[in-house]
Amino acid sequence: MPKILTNQSDNAIQQVIATKLARAVFAGFEAMFAQFLNITLGAQSRFEQQKYHDVQSAMRERLQVYEREVKNVSNAVRVIAYSELNCPQTWQLAKNIYGDMLQNHENKPIAHTFFNSTFGAIWDDKKIRTVHLFVLKAKYRSEPRSYENLVSRISFKDGFNHAVKTLITRQVFRVSFSNLDADLQALQTTLMAGAKQQCKQVYELINLNNGFIEYANSLFFRNKACYLIGRCIAKNGDNMPFAIAILNTSKGLKLDAVMMGADQLSLLFGFARTYFMVDTDQPARYVDYLSVLMPHKKRFELFNAIGFIKHAKTEFYRYKVDTTKNSPANFKYIAAPGTPGMVMLVFTIEGLDYVYKVIKDKFSAPKTATKAQVKDKYSFVKQADRVGRLVDTHEFRYLAFDLSRFSDELLNQMKAQIGSSMVISGKALILKHVYVERKMMPLNLYINSCNNKALQQVMDDYGKAIKDLAGANIFPGDMLMKNFGVTRWGRVVFYDYDEICPLTDCHFRDVPNAQNALEELSSNTYFDIAENDIFPSQFKVFFSANDAAFNNFNNLHSNLFLAEFWQGCQQQIRAGYLPDVYPYKQSWRFK
To answer: Domain Isocitrate dehydrogenase kinase/phosphatase (AceK) regulatory: where (predicted)?
Structure first.
């Protein structure tokens, strides 16, 4: 039972302990942030040295920093608090003291989230009231702030081409460009054409040498590339955002492509990509700046993109609550469109671009995994390089919903299938464990409503998605089309992770020839099969319901039905080869 303080002596110790708790959490936050930043600071050096395996290791290490420090602080707090550990009054006071300590802190919103995480780790499955958390009140929500110290500007007064050249030559690397003049010409021409097509005011002022280029002082590093982010701005405020991709090739640095406009930038900051490393101790202000460049992106998406995934969850929760409050009362949570899963119950609500996935109490045959194994698969995906083909997830514990928003049909389904993972308390439905993913059109539904040209394109990308994952040492496991989705760009991504595994854990085989007709006609398997044996020739069953889809896929990616292809991928992975994966269309690359 939580301790209740009653007398003056108790109140005195409460003040002392609450202050110590607040200081311990604050020290933990500062330690976490320093570790996060130290790993990030090495991004440019890893890029310059082409240490791409180290890039992946650093990303995995950085993902562990937050949870590790929350655990360290939680252990310290248990010692500090002692008998007051479960006292709600002490925690309420600690929260107030912590809030005062952060009054003028640069990273107050992220520090708030760290307190929430620590409190949640201590209280675990006890009833947690939002009064103990920095979440929904307006004063906990950061307003956009000035980002002037994060950006620089270059005037067009000496000509647009000169401004573009200055933009690139201001970037400092320990590696030289291999052919800067040619790269600059391609960049200047492409930016000019993009402005002409996308932003008339910018284009006119470029030609009048009026306006300027604004760019972020910190580069954005990810995988094998770094990105220079900014915008061309006209004097009336019209602007065209851009992101310039820089690669480090065997011959030196190279400008590879430029993405222009908010839509193209959104591909770069997509939900199936791994996180950027950005050298800044002012991440919230960078999110403010990115929000200007991509106003359709939600704040939680941008925090997530630059690696602050725990605070992104806080921002998502606010977005979820606001969206629900502002939607019509008849908008109900319903089962998500698509084929019901054997492992997950999936639901959504109109007006929200996300789905909620809860592990079922009992899996449908032939699934044999446990809940713990499924959680491990999702953790594996979080740590993996998603190469633009795996949907990112947010994992929540004790996530509350408005009970009145659930349709009777869904509520009955939930009670039957995930009863052990839900609690109904008053007007709230609380899920003990749930994943949140981006909503999209399942591939098996998409192909039933698209024309022949779109079918060919999506089947091509379906095959490319499988190959991209294979190159990143990821085998999807269950490759049925119902487990893949199609984004608004027509890009195919994978989102069902209960059978996913490292490609190198698999044993790809050809089906042995039968010794005689009796073996071939037998309903029993005539050869031994180990647990990790996989027979690519049998993948054709994934298309059993759609001949047109199979024909398109087979014409473009028939090698996926050969064990030899998969074995070749494994050999490349074991040899240390990392394929090039571009977060932009091949047609956008400079010649």
So the answer is: 22-327
| Average pLDDT taken over every residue of the chain | 90
What whole-number distance in Å separates Cα of residue 425 and Cα of residue 260?
A: 49
Task: Kindly give the residue spans of alpha helices, DSSP state H, lying in 384-494.
Answer: 408-417, 443-446, 452-471
State the catalytic residue, choosing from 183, 238, 256, 392.
Answer: 392
341 is in an annotated binding site: yes
Residue ending a domain, among 78, 100, 135, is 135
- Look at residues 86, 115, 130 and name the one whose alpha carbon lies nearest to residue 26: 115
pLDDT tens for each residue of 288-308: 999 999 999 999 999 999 999
138 is in an annotated binding site: no
342 is in an annotated binding site: yes
- DSSP per residue, 361-372: SSPPTT----HH
Question: Residue 493: which domain range?
Answer: 443-588
**Does 338 show up as a binding residue in the annotation?**
yes
* 312 contact partners, CB below 8 Å, separation of at least 6: 300, 301, 303, 304, 394
Is 415 annotated to bind a ligand? Reply is: no
416 φ/ψ angles, rounded to the nearest 5 degrees: -80, -35
Whether the predicted model's global pTM rises above the 0.90 cut: yes
What b/e string do you get for 529-548 counting C-beta neighbours within 10 Å, with b at 16 or more?
Answer: eeeeebebeebeebbeebee
- Asked whether residue 291 is assigned to any structural domain, the reply reads yes
Number of domains in the chain: 4
Helix, strand, coil share of the chain (percent; to 5): 50, 15, 35
pLDDT tens digits, 92-118: 999 999 999 999 999 999 999 999 999
The angle at the Cα of 183, spanning 182 to 187, to the nearest 5 degrees, equals 120
Helices and strands, counts by H and E, the chain: 19, 22
List Cβ neighbours of 545 (8 Å cut-off, separation of 6 or more).
none
Q: Tell whether 357 is in a known binding site.
A: yes
Q: What is the pLDDT of residues 152-199, one digit of tens each?
A: 999 999 999 999 999 999 999 999 999 999 999 999 999 999 888 888
Q: Which of 260, 153, 261 is nearest to 212 (CA)?
A: 153
Q: Is 337 annotated as a binding residue?
A: yes
Residues 115 and 190 grouped into a single domain: no
pLDDT digits (tens, 9 = 90+) for 333-361: 999 988 888 999 999 998 888 999 999 99
**Strand 484-486 relative to strand 492-494: parallel, antiparallel, unpaired?**
antiparallel
Nearby residues of 571 by Cβ (< 8 Å), 6 or more positions away = none
533 catalytic per annotation: no
Residues 126 and 3 placed together within one structural domain of the fold: yes
Q: Which of 505, 455, 458 is nearest to 477 (CA)?
A: 505
283 appears as a binding residue in the annotation: no
Question: Which bin fits 53, alpha (ψ -120 to 50), beta or left (φ > 0)?
Answer: alpha
Question: Quick check: bond before 366 cis, omega within 30?
Answer: yes
Indicate whether 108 and 159 sit together in one domain.
Answer: no
Q: Strands 151-155 and 212-216: what pairing?
A: antiparallel
